[in-house]
Amino acid sequence: MNIILFGPPGAGKGTQAQFIVQKYNYFQLSMGDLLRDEVKTKTSLGAKIEKLISNGKFASDEIVNSLLKQCLNNLKFRDRIIFDGYPRNIEQAKNLKILLGGFDQTISHIIFLNVSKDIIKKRIMGRMTCDKCNMTLNEFFNKEQIELHPCGKEFLKKRKDDNLDVVLARYETYMKTTKPVLDFYSKNANFTEIDGAAEIEQITNKINAVLNV
Question: What element of type H or E holds 138?
């Protein structure tokens, strides 16, 4: 059972994906993480990706499709994947169907976390990610958790692209390129929209209800 988890930048996709991974023993295939990992390796491709992300733009279809295919070649990902941050446009959606078909896989659930731009701005401006465990916390909403973070709060860092101008640019790009994909998938019986502005636990419970049907 493969899952696509949609939502604009800062909607909480990463947090909810972590819960699914822990509860159902899934693999989170975060295109954002794949891109950032490529940047960390300091390859020529990584440098190109870093320039795009820093300017609030998304990586090209050619780049993300190549990284995705590399992951699907790994047997451990078969039929237990959460696609986080992919597909972002109609062509990527079609490509995903073709790639999965080549490995005899399909998408079982499509979940959209719908959040307004105002809430996303607050979430992203306070977002911090642990360099060791990849956990995401918010300096405004998770003060106690940050102080008690088991890896040590010194490992919690803000991403370079988390500034107001970039946030707004990413949101507008998301709305322009990804909304058609949502319209495309919303016709499917396995499409579910969830209020992403709700409390984290409420969102988790709704996702669990969808997956346990």
Answer: strand 136-138
Peptide bond preceding 180 in cis form (omega within 30 of 0): no
Structure tokens at 67: 């990284």
Kindly report the backbone phi and psi dihedral angles of residue 69, in degrees, each rounded to the nearest multiple of 5, phi listed first. -65, -35
Cα distance between residue 161 and residue 154, in whole Å: 19
pTM of the model: 0.73
The string of DSSP codes covering 43-104 is -HHHHHHHHHHHTT-PPPHHHHHHHHHHHHTSGGGTT-EEEES---SHHHHHHHHHHHHHTT
Question: What is the per-residue pLDDT across 10-34, written as a single tens digit (0 to 9) for each?
Answer: 788 888 998 999 999 998 888 878 8
Domains along the sequence of the chain with CATH: 2-116+165-211 (3.40.50.300), 127-161 (no CATH)
CA 38 to CA 205: how far, in whole Å? 33
